[in-house]
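Re: [ENG-882] Designed sequences occasionally contain unexpected residues at chain ends

Forwarding the minimal case from QA. Structure tokens:
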């Protein structure tokens, strides 16, 4: 079963909203954690926390949006946050419409198709963020190479280092010779890039997106967790750490969460993991011909005879 766009947009919103908040930790707001007492500051001309008292009581006019299924009787905040109202439009554009990837499909074609589908879902719901693919992190952590991120969600905020990155990896890739798991590659060339600061060095949330091409999500989760425990030290984790239940969607068996220590940072870095099931009956693409041995790839250089 493929996750619906509503599941995935919620998954992405968890990290995107947290990372956007990370970009706003300076200035007046930094003096008032969680905005407590900010309304009494002399520099504030108007303040409404939308939590105490009647919604809209401090405003001259209240606009009830109807674009997401709200009616004249719907409270303003409910019109913007109620999951059922948001899902009404998101479910019109689910990933069920995407053709299932081949059993040995490469990562880039699937990531690009997924990016286009996510853009359609975003446009249908008027969600205020950009979605890009194959972006390069120009400011990685000190000593780290630049990283090329598969899918990047950027809020409408004037700082290029505030974003939510998704690193896509294939798991349980099918072939005529069996199934190759790629669990170690998921950790080594995916998770570790976040921990070392090649990706998301200025924020505290990132995402791993696994394409489980044989459809066995439970096996993929178990295999990846085994590699996480093997590499716990490099991942900034304790020996007993592993996958945790997703705090954003605890009832979804395809979602997991891990917490990590990064050099020079006090608060943990959180990675959200989403495992997407492929079709176990999808066709397998023809295998490319094997590369010739290195000594046969280039003609041997011969020395020209010296002129007499």
């Amino acid at each position: 079963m493929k996750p619906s766009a509503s599941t995935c947009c919620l998954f992405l919103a968890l990290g995107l909203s947290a990372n956007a908040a990370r970009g706003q930790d300076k200035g007046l707001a930094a003096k008032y954690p969680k905005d407590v007492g900010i309304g009494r500051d002399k520099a504030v001309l108007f303040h409404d926390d939308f939590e105490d008292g009647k919604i809209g009581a401090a405003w001259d006019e209240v606009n009830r949006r109807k674009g997401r299924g709200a009616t004249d009787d719907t409270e303003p905040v409910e019109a913007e946050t109620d999951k059922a109202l948001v899902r009404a439009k998101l479910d019109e554009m689910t990933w069920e419409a995407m053709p299932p990837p081949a059993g040995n499909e490469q990562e880039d074609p699937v990531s690009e198709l997924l990016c286009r589908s996510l853009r359609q879902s975003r446009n249908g719901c008027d969600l205020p963020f950009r979605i890009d693919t194959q972006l390069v992190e120009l400011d990685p952590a000190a000593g780290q190479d630049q990283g090329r991120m598969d899918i990047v969600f950027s809020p409408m905020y004037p700082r290029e280092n505030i974003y939510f990155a998704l690193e896509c990896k294939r798991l349980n890739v099918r072939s005529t010779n069996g199934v190759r798991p790629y669990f170690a590659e998921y950790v080594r060339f995916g998770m570790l890039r976040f921990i070392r600061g090649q990706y998301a060095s200025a924020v505290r949330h990132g995402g791993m997106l696994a394409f489980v091409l044989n459809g066995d999500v439970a096996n993929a989760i178990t295999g990846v967790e085994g590699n996480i425990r093997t590499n716990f030290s490099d991942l900034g984790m304790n020996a007993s750490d592993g996958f945790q239940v997703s705090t954003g969607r605890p009832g979804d068996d395809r979602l997991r969460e891990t917490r990590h220590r990064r050099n020079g940072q006090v608060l943990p870095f959180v990675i959200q993991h989403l495992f997407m099931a492929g079709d176990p009956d999808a066709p397998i693409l023809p295998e490319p011909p094997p590369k010739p041995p290195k000594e046969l790839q280039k003609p041997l250089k011969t020395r020209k005879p010296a002129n007499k």
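QA comment: On inspection the terminal residues look reasonable. Strands lie at 129-136, 148-155, 164-171, 173-175, 178-180, 205-212, 244-245, 255-260, 269-277. Proposing we downgrade this to a documentation issue.
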